[in-house]
Amino acid sequence: MKTSRNTGFSGKSLSLAVIAALGMSVGGVNAATISYEDSESISQSSSGSLFLQKFNTTLGTLTGITVQLQLNDWASTFTFTHNNSVTLAQDSMAGVRVTLTGAGKSLQATARQNLAPDGDIHYSGSGTETLTPTSPASASSQFSDTAAWALANGYVGSDSKQLDYSGIQSQLIGTSGASTSNILTQDMTGAVKAVVTYTYDAAPVTSVPEPSSVLMCSAPALLGVGAFLRRFRGKRIESC
After folding, report:
1. Distances (CA, A) of 61 to 30, 56, 70, 167
2. 220 vs 227: CA distance, rounded Å
3. Which pLDDT score, from 0 to 100, does residue 150 have?
4. pTM score, two decimals?
5. Distances (CA, A) of 153 to 52, 161, 195, 203
6. Collapsing DSSP states into helix, strand and coil, what is residue 178?
7. How many CA atoms lie within 13 A of 64 on its CB side?
């Protein structure tokens, strides 16, 4: 009767061992962000459009979006006309508001400047006053939402999304004894900016190794397999 010694290593498992020795790891999914922005200079009666790049799906899978409106470096010289006696109270503020439409949600940014930081200012009768705040002001507003919302509101594609800004206004806050004939005008400088930030899972990058690298990495495994085969062939089948 012939018996064979069980080596515990079948041909299939041997093949799997060789494949495992030669196998290459594939890169995983990485969370990432990318931002785009557009800006324009503004004046008292400005209105216009800003354009933000949409999310390109070749980057990966979109997971979220944030849209921000900024009113930057707003500086003004105010002309305040009054037809009666009026007091400009300490810490009276002049405000400028920018509204962004077309973003899918309402966005407004209001910047304010102090017109009377040193105390109440009293004006008698009628006249025109010039007020110059000492430092520029800035403001911002933003919202965040899901990838599904971004897709439904036109933020996915290879082109740009148009957002319109308007409604830049002056407001005089904190006066006493003022009538509706009080007028506040201004010479304004500054910039309005829109920023979109996309969060996404980056598409995995699969690298293709050079043939020489494969041989170099697999040489130890192949030598080990060769030694195993030599030992396997050296075994003698016993007979009785």
Report:
1. 10, 9, 27, 36
2. 11
3. 98
4. 0.67
5. 13, 10, 16, 23
6. coil
7. 8
